[in-house]
Amino acid sequence: MENRKKIERISFTAMAVTILTVPLYLLIHTYGQSSDTTLDSAQYVGRQACIECHLNEYTQWTGSDHDLAMQPANDSTVLGNFNNQTIEYNGMTHKLFRKDDKFFVYTDGENGEMEEFEVKYTFGYYPLQQYLVEFDKGRLQTLPLTWNSKDNAWYHMANEIYKDEIIEHNNWLHWTNQAQNWNSMCADCHSTNLVKGYDVDHDSYNTTWNEIDVSCEACHGPASKHLEWAAKAEYARNEHNNYGLVVQTSNIDNKQYTDLCVRCHTRRGTVSDFKHSADIYNHTIPNLPTGENYHIDGQILDEDYVYGSFTQSKMFMQNVQCNDCHDVHSTRRHFEDNRLCTQCHRADDYDTYNHHFHKKFGEQGNAVIADDGVKFAVGEGTRCINCHMPAQFYMGVDYRNDHSIRIPRPDLTKELGTPNACNQCHADKSTQWAIDYVNKWHGVGRPYQYGLAFKEAQTGSPKGFDDLVNIYKDEVYPEIVRAIAVHYLGVYYQSQSKDILYTAINNFNGHIRYNALQSLVVNDQKSLNKVLEMLSDNTKAIRIECATKLNTLQPDQIPVKYKKAYAKAQNEYLETLRYSADFPTGKFNLANYYYNTNQIDKAEEFFKRALKQDDQLHTIKINLALLYNSKGEHKKTDLLFKDYLKHMPEDGNTMFSYSLFLSEQKRYDESMEYLLKAHKLSPKNSRIAYNIAMMYDFENNKTEAIKFLKTAIDNSPNDPGFYVALLQLHVKYQQTAKSKTVARTILEKFPDISDKEQIEAIANRK
C-alpha cells in the first residue's frame, strides 16, 4: 500500500510541474536603431515640428491609414450613418443615432441589458471604421457595431468573426470585456508613444499618448535631437550620428528595414511599452508562422498582419523590403496593377499568357465565384497577386493578401490539406483538376516544401527528425522557417535534439536563438547550465525566458556566480507578468509565478481573478485545483477537476491527473475508473499505462498488470524504468524464465543502468 501511494504521489507531483510550466514568448532579431543613449535623451516633439522641412512627406502622410488610425469622433471623422439606424443581432435591436451633435449607440452593455453609449473616438476608416466607448477605470472598449466603408452599411462584428457562437455579456469575447479592450488589444499600434499604464493592483488604466494617430515619431523615433541637429549651421552638423534621429531608415538592408515595421505588422506578444532601441525583442516578440494562425505550409489562416508571411517569402530572401511595393508615407501601393511586380520581374516573361494561362481583360468568358464568395471577372486571372498572393476576408470586409508570395501548389492541397490559389478561385473544380492543369502547363514535379517536413514531424517519425534537422541547417531556407524547425525539434524530438538546441541557442538570428531556448526542456545539469549562462544576455526576452525556466528553483539552488543575474532576470520577468496581467492569460501566468515562488495566497488571488475575467479558460481550473490540493483543501480540488472535465471531457492527461488525486484520497475504485478512461483517450501516454499496471498489481491481477506494463514499454521503448518495473513484477510472481529474459533485455539496451549487478544476478540465475 505505501509503495503504491508513493508511486502515485510522485506521478501526481510530476504532472503538477508539467501543467504549471507555461511558455510565454517568441522572438526575432532587429537592427537599424541608434544607441539607447540617444534615445534616453531624445524627447517627442510632435509632427508640427516636422512640416517646415518635410512638407512633401507630411502631405503624403495626411489622409493615410496611419493618419486616420484613430481620431476624436466628430462630423469630419465619423463615416458611419448615425441617422437613427438599426441593426439586428442576437435577438436584439441595436440603434445608432445622434444627440446634441454627438454620436450614440443603443446596445447590450456589461450586464446584458440594452444601454445608451456615447462614441468618443473613431478607429480606422477603410474598408471599415470602428468606434470606441469610454468605461470606468480608464478603459476604452471597441463597439461591435461596425461601419462598412466600402459598401456604406452597418454590420455586427461578432456576426462575422464569431459566426458559430452567440456572444453573451459574460463571455470574454463580448465587446465590454477584455478581448475588445482598446488599451491592451489595439492602442499601441494606432497612436504614437503609447503608454498603456495598466495598474495590476487596481485593475485600471491610465493610458497616454503623444499623438493620437501613427505620426512621424512613431516610426522615426522622438525627434528633439534631430531638431537640435537641424538648427545648427551646416558646417557644425555631425554627419555620423544619423542626423540626430533615433531610428535609422536609410542605408540599411531589407531585414533591418522590415524590422522597423514588425512591432505592429505581426501577431506578437509584448513584454513592455514600445521603446525604440537596438533590440526590438526587448519589448515585442513576433509569433512564428505556426499553430492556429497559419496553415502548416505557412499560408495565412487567421490574421497575421504580414510579417510572419513575408519573412517566409522568396522575395524577402532576395532582399525585397516593404517600401519596394508600398509608399511608406501614404501607405498606398506604388501601383494597383501588374506594374507593381514588373518593377523587378520582366513583363515579357511573366506578364504574358505563356506564364499565367488566363484570358485578358476584355476577352470573352465567364466570371468565377471564389470559395469566399468574391466574384472574379474575366482578366482577373492575369493579375500576379491573385495567383501568388491570394486574399481572404478578415473582420468581415477587410480583404487581405497573403504576403508569403508563393507559387500555387494544388499538389500540397492533396498532401497536406492546405489551400491553393487555383481552387480558391475555381471553387467548383476539384484539386486533381488543378493539379492536372499545373502539370500540363509546367511539367510534372514540384520543389520540396517545408510543410511536408512539419507534417511528418507531428508523427514523431525518424524521417520527421531528419527533415527538421536538414531544414534547420540549410541556410537556403528563410530564417523564420528554420526557427520553426528548431521549435518542432524541441516539441517532438526533445531527447534527440538537445545538442542541436544547444547549438541553435548561440545562432546569430533571434528567431532561431529564442525558439531553441524556449523549446529546451531543463531536465539535467547540462541544460540547466545552458540556461544559467544566458541570464546575462543582452536581449530582454531571452533573460525573461531564462527566468521562466528557473522559476521553480529555490534561491539557494542558484550558483553564487549567477545570483545577481538571476535576481535581475526574475525582476524583469515579474515586471513583464504584471505588465501583461490585464489579460486573463496574463493573470494566469502571474498566478503561476506566485505559486512557483511559494506565494500561495497571491497565486490563489490571481487564479481567481483570471477565471473571473474568462471562465472559458479552463486550464486555470487545473492549476487552481493543484494549489488547493497543496493546501489540503481537497473538496475544492475535487470540484475544480470535475468542472474542468465537464467542459473538456476528451483531455486524457488531465483525467490522469484527477485519477492520481483520487488515489491520494484513497478513492481507489474511482481512481481506476478514471485511469482507464484516460488510457482510452491517451493510449500513447506511458505514465497512464504504468499507473494502471500498478493498480492491477495491487489487486494481484498479474495478467493485466503485466499487459499494461508492456503497453508502457511499447509506447516508451527507451525508458529503462518501465523495463525495471516489468522485471520486478516477473520476480514478484516467480516467473523465472520471463525474469531472465527481461533482465537480459535491460542489460543489452541499457548497459550503464544503475543496480546493474542485481539485474545481472537475475539474468544469470539458474
From TrEMBL:
Keywords from the named record: Membrane, Repeat, Signal, TPR repeat, Transmembrane, Transmembrane helix
Superkingdom of the source species: Bacteria
Domain Cytochrome c-552/4 residue range list: 178-221
Entry-linked Gene3D superfamilies: Flavocytochrome C3, Chain A, Tetratricopeptide repeat domain
Parts of the chain that traverse the membrane: 12-32
InterPro entries for the chain: Cyt_c-552/4, Multihaem_cyt_sf, Multiheme_Cytochr_ET, TPR-like_helical_dom_sf, TPR_2, TPR_rpt
PANTHER family: C-TYPE POLYHEME CYTOCHROME OMCC (PTHR35038:SF8), DISSIMILATORY SULFITE REDUCTASE SIRA (PTHR35038)
Designated name of the protein: Tetratricopeptide repeat protein
Organism listed in the record: Plebeiibacterium marinum
